[in-house]
Amino acid sequence: MSEPILSVSGVTKRFGGLVALRDLSFDIQRDEAVGLMGPNGAGKTTLLNVIAGEYKPDSGAIRFNGNFITSLPPHKICHLGIARTYQIPQPFVNLTALQNVVVAARFGRGLGKAPAEKEASEVLDMIGLSEKKDALAKDLSTITLKLLELARVLASKPELVLLDEVAAGLTEAEIPKLLDTLRKVRSMGITVLLIEHVISVMMQAVDRIVVINEGMKIAEGAPKEIMEDKKVIEAYFG
Amino acid sequence: MDVDRNMKVPINQLRLMLPVVLVAVLAIFPIIGTPRVWLLYLFLFFVYLTMANMWNLLAGYSGLTFLGPAALIGLAGYTLVIVTWNDLPFYLGIIGGGIVAAAFAALIAVPTFRMRGIYFAIGTLVVPEALRYVFYLWKPVGGEMQGGGAGYMIKGIGELSLTEFYWLALAIGIVSIFLMRIILRSKLGLGLAAIRDSDRAAASSGVDVFRLKLYAFVIAAFVTGAAGAIFYIYQGYIAPASAFNIRWLMTCLLATVIGGIRTEEGPIVGTIIVVFLHFLLARYGALSLLIQGVILVVIMLLIPEGIVGFVRKTRAYRSLAALAAGR
Ligand SMILES: Nc1ncnc2c1ncn2[C@@H]1O[C@H](COP(=O)(O)OP(=O)(O)OP(=O)(O)O)[C@@H](O)[C@H]1O
Ligand SMILES: [Mg+2]
Predict the structure, then answer these.
(1) Could you identify which of A93, B21, B64, B196 might form a hypothetical disulfide with A138, taking C-beta atoms 3.0 to 4.6 angstroms apart as the criterion?
(2) What is the pTM for the complete model shown?
(3) Can you tell me the ipTM of this complex?
């Protein structure tokens, strides 16, 4: 196998006495879509925060395209090509939907004003938010904000996206549209790390699943295998 | 179609012409025999407007609730003292005041930017207090102790008249308005707006949060400092108790919040009211601060978005704006 795009090795993260991530290791290959599963409080979001540079791990290292990024600040990690969404959307509430996306196009990707606006419009189009583009983010529904997170992430032209529960809150009818968008994202050559509780989305969108519980990896494999794995079933229902 | 055009052109021309005419009229005020008191209040208006604009840039647009403008203004005033006591021209005092204030801002940025929200506010509130003690004890250019601590006359400005003070203030007031326009429409302005709404999302979208905040802080400090130096040229005297006084913060806060924080016109409207209040409350001394505080609280309760923010929400304004846009 070629060099992984992302390599997490031996990462431990503590919050006071609580160990949120415990000696966690796994790789993501280029162009792969990997799912990250685990019960509530398993440490999934924490892992995303560590990869994106918001938290420094207590030990362990993260490599992106072979380079150590463990000690870099979030904006530098974005410039290198990793973009993330937030489980609880973090929109720029006083900016329009378009401007929200323009921020990423200008600062993440380094585009000038006009090209950034064009790029942002195109991304909103792709996500299906073009009608909302002039609305202030504070006037948008939570669902729309989730999609706006996705648009913002794509506008920075990342190589790897970290998606934290983008499907949560979507209705049954909206799921196919999201899956379609995820397919488009992958066809753009973007590698995906997806946190998801909606099993159907997980099964259809990813090639491989990593399951963590209490900060430890308990299983890793193809979606089908994972769904039959004893440890996983136990972690969720036991 | 035709009706549209006829409506649109004059309004747009008016938009361009109005500021030019206004500035020209304001500029000739001192030479057409306008009463001194008027000039004085206009002078204060422009100085306070400049400071309020810069405070709005920080608190309204950059998420930096900076409670220590007095530190910048006081330091700039003392820089003016040092410059003029060394027989250098006063305008170097204005520029020097700006530079010292900007350098000081850059210095305190490192520790204070680590603090967020309320902690940044509190952290910066104590800065002028600390400086006041410094100037109680330290006399930058020697001489006799006057007043409490380092009280000084500003030297070498004897030949300057109110007309010249006034023009200086007018100039910096206009510069501050244009600066706001330019910054808010620039990449810096967009980044600052993003930081204000969510510094986490801004950073993860590629915004270098520390650097952008630093830019805003240093720019605002320079302009605030320069305005402070211009104020002390007019005042002719500086003492630690008044230079590092909370009154400066009150002025910036009142003007911005009453007028409408996070709006470009807010500080203009707010400063008019603040100067009018100063005029009305001039003879009440310490009580004046209390009355201003009460007014601030009342405004925050009734119209938290300020006068400009409130007017913008009304239907009359919206239809007028639509008309101006030619829709
Ligand atoms: N900033 C923090 N300070 C202290 N504890 C934290 C912090 N962030 C997360 N934790 C704790 O770390 C553990 C893992 O939280 P995390 O948010 O990573 O879980 P998760 O797998 O994303 O859960 P969910 O499915 O509910 O989103 C939890 O016990 C949580 O309370
Ligand atoms: Mg989570």
Answers:
(1) A93
(2) 0.90
(3) 0.93
